[in-house]
Amino acid sequence: MTVSTAVPDETTNPEPRLGRSWHIVLPLLCYLAVGAAMIIYTQSVPLDGIERGSLNLPYIFGRTWEHIQLVFYSTVLVLVVALPLGILLTRGTLRRATPFVLTLVNVGQATPAVGLVVLLAVLFQIGFWTSVAALFAYSLLPTLRNTMVGLQQVDWRLIDAGRGIGMSAARVLFKVELPMAAPVILSGIRTTLVLSVGTASIAAFIGAGGLGDLITTGVSTQRNLVLVTGCVLIAVLALMIDWVGGLAQRVLAPKGLS
Amino acid sequence: MTLWEYVEDRWDLILFETAQHASMVAQCVLVAALLGVLIGVATYRRPRLASLATASSGVLFTVPSLAMLGLLIPALGLGVAPSVTAIVLYALLPIIRNTVVGLQGVDQLVVDAARGIGMSRQRSLTRIELPLAWPVILTGIRVSTQLAMGIGAVAAYVSGPGLGEQIFSGLARLGGANAVNSTLTGTIGVAVLALLFDGCFVLLGKLTRPEGPLSRRLTTGGVRG
């Protein structure tokens, strides 16, 4: 299952430099404005005791920071594991295992995120690092899959040509294969990021903190304002991280491929 | 109690929840497929509208499902209503996008030829363009189904029906007897259901592709070049 959230907007005519850069930051400004409006609103309406406990600024920023940490740690782990593993699984004799691994990845993606999170909690313990492990296991798959698929679809004639002009296998990997596969790999990493923001909100069920705490508090105490604030902030965070992923895709992809 | 004993002991309940999950997903995807193809058909000839539809679905798509479910609680309360609404909303997005992409990908020459031999716009759409775009649309529906399976599990948090209840009752009994069994049953159940549905889509895709057995019989009477 390839879930791409890319918005097809790169095909438009090249615009003047200033106009173009404005177009890029416009969504980010919108997301920031929505998030800020939500926080300002919660600070300006009268709150009861329970609401004050969850809707004060230090609490909100603390939970946001926890959420970002959950996403950050799990994504770094994914990058450290999935990229070398994906490269390794497309080399030499291991290449024959590629279809098998891809099938396994597809089966893994059929597992519901909430099931995985709760399962790790009942098997081990609740808490931050269990959640990071669950996030890692769940969001590993898109990056691993796209690394393998991206490397697989590099034209073999280009690899032959690289070898033919005397490049070593490692040099071909770094100078030809990885740059050619970069767009696919980067879109996998972007999917990983967005998936882990969503899974991190589920991780509030197992005591990981994060903005999901506002949702569980809001539901269990029937305070809709707390609930809605949590939901809006999670949505804004996801959109902002997706935006950063989109920016990385543009900046890091080798020029002149598309 | 082993997992097997647990499943045997609660076989009726688990079977019921599995059936609920499957029927919820199937109905939601059916509604989403109808709506999504309609929206796709309505917008694909207007580039502005089409990119608006795909861009806004992209934004909605990025919003995590738990946040979407939470936002629906104040409006719809707990239970079936927010679960079904959220699933349909998420399931719409891949279908709209793939319908637009699939229809726009149909060779313009083929469409012109269809119009040239006197087909009306509707007829060209239903006889030529939609069948040619069908594999892409079907892929969208397939992705939607997988999504719906996972969101259906989260929906148990807002008291939605289905196998998610097993997962959340495992969470509620954390550390107690059967917590692991219950969670495993829910998780594996949803995964197996998702793979079963996916298998059906692979089969359906093979049967209904433009040059496949079903549509060949319907359209060209088996004449092949």
TrEMBL record, chain A:
Family matches, as SUPFAM superfamilies: MetI-like
Membrane topology: Multi-pass membrane protein
Regions that span the bilayer: 22-42, 70-90, 110-138, 193-212, 224-245
GO cellular component assignments: plasma membrane
Cellular localisation: Cell membrane; Membrane
GO BP annotations listed: glycine betaine transport; transmembrane transport
Major localization listed first in the record, in broad terms: membrane
Domain ABC transmembrane type-1 residues, every copy: 64-245
Keyword entries, A-Z: Membrane, Transmembrane, Transmembrane helix, Transport
Family membership: Belongs to the binding-protein-dependent transport system permease family.
Full protein name: ABC transporter permease
Organism the protein comes from: Nonomuraea longispora
Lineage: Bacteria, Bacillati, Actinomycetota, Actinomycetes, Streptosporangiales
Automatic annotation (TrEMBL), chain B:
TM segment ranges: 20-42, 49-67, 73-93, 132-159, 179-204
Presence of the UniProt keyword Zinc-finger in the record: no
UniProtKB keywords: Membrane, Transmembrane, Transmembrane helix, Transport
Membrane topology: Multi-pass membrane protein
Matches recorded under Gene3D superfamilies: MetI-like
Signal peptide: none
Domain ABC transmembrane type-1 per the UniProt entry, residue ranges: 18-197
Primary location: membrane
Pfam families: BPD_transp_1 (PF00528)
Gene Ontology BP terms: glycine betaine transport; transmembrane transport
PANTHER family, per database record: GLYCINE BETAINE/L-PROLINE TRANSPORT SYSTEM PERMEASE PROTEIN PROW (PTHR30177), OSMOPROTECTANT IMPORT PERMEASE PROTEIN OSMW (PTHR30177:SF4)
Protein name: ABC transporter permease
Species of the source: Nonomuraea longispora
UniProt lineage: Bacteria, Bacillati, Actinomycetota, Actinomycetes, Streptosporangiales
